[in-house]
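Hi support team,

I'm filing this because I wasn't sure whether my run with F0G finished correctly. The job status page said complete, but I'd like someone to confirm that the output block is well-formed before I use it downstream. Pasting the exact inputs I used:
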Amino acid sequence: MTEKSARPAVQTGERSIQRCIQPSCGAVFAIHERVIVCTHCGGPLEVQLDFNGLENPRALRDTWAARAASTDPRDRSGVWRYRELLPFASEAPIVTLAEGNTPLYDAPRCADYSGLAALRLKHQGCNPTGSFKDTGMTTAVTQAVLLGAGTVVCASTGNTAASLAAYAARARIQCAILVPSGQITAAKLAQSMDYGATICEVEGNFDACMRLVQELAGDPSIYIANSINPFRIEGQKTVAIELMIQCGWRAPDHVVVPGGNMGNSSAFGKGFDELLRLGLLDRLPSLSIIQAEGAAPLARLFAALDRAKPAESLIPDALVPVEHPQTLATAIKIGSPVSWRKALRAVLNSRGQIITVSEQEIADAKAIIGRDGIGCEPASATTVAGIRKLVAAGHIRRGDSVVAVLTGHVLKDPAYVSDYHRGSLSLDSTAPDSASREITGQFRNVPERVAATKAAVLESLRRRG
Ligand code: F0G
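And here is everything the job wrote out:
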């Protein structure tokens, strides 16, 4: 236990602990200790819940179903509704924006495009700030308040920042965000400005911002809200519960997520694993992660693994970072993901895959998601592009039940959408190993200028019909 930790004003769930996931360490910290990473070995921490207090876990399904009709703010939240699986005392004051509760859509055009009989899209972009980050920020900022933290800080490609800024504003605590200068979308930056965060546009990429945040973590006034913080993962894992409710508690064969800093995949892995241990699921869905070709350190590592060996023995000590990550899906332009160990463990345990998709594949998949009337930001579209490849490779079969997780709203990056449809999308790169690459919009939909007459409009419709 650390000497630094302060006792919070209100204690979080006493039955849980924080544990270092490094097999050679395994150090344990109390749930109210203010630690972000292991103070012994620097390894990542994970919350470990004590399920012994749950007398009848199967009854939780009915409890959660009943809460969906309640007007209590804790029940309206699609995170806190599942509070039996969160490491907080039931009386803890929560910071919430009624997050979660996101739709699961049928996507017939995406299914055709991917070579599947059916495909469902879980749209986490329908959260209050437009991305899946809100489900983790409600718990991380609640923990920050419980710990009496003065300032919350994160490194971000834009969505984490917007989400943290919003929840910090709700909690009335100071927020600072570190973003790579000129590399996040105008919409995401605008959100953080509106929510009143202190915005540091760092001269460097996301990985540089993340390094800076880890240095700042030692400062007692600062509480880090990146997904390296285990309380983020606790909130984010509840999407696995919500998804299983939407699936009638029948686990899909495959769940496919984009991979950036790897918090989301880690959270899905933990959520499914806990449901399995509680007997609420009878098997794990196979969890696969899709990375953009130019920012794919974990897919590279995965491709080099000898998967005949037992899963735990396959996780190496270190990940070789991508020095100059490149992708137009700026949300996942990350070369050194902090949560790669947890994510790799979840993929190996569920016999999933980690693969890459090209910029062209991302762009076309994104347009198809739009044609289903759904839409998403570029990073989210890696999922449909990846599923198409996994079907072609035989890892996913035509009749399998598959859920793709869309992580961000289509309006997070309108410039990308417009450039794709107008034919001006290209990957301009200053990195030595890649030239400027044009993207051909296979599913372009270009606006047409027409005269202000009925005949001109009808003529335009006829041409397009
Ligand atoms: N999709 C979107 C829209 C994201 O914003 C992110 C990550 C990811 C996917 C990848 O998720 O990092 O959990 O593997 N965005 C972070 C941010 C890095 O700062 O907003 P991950």
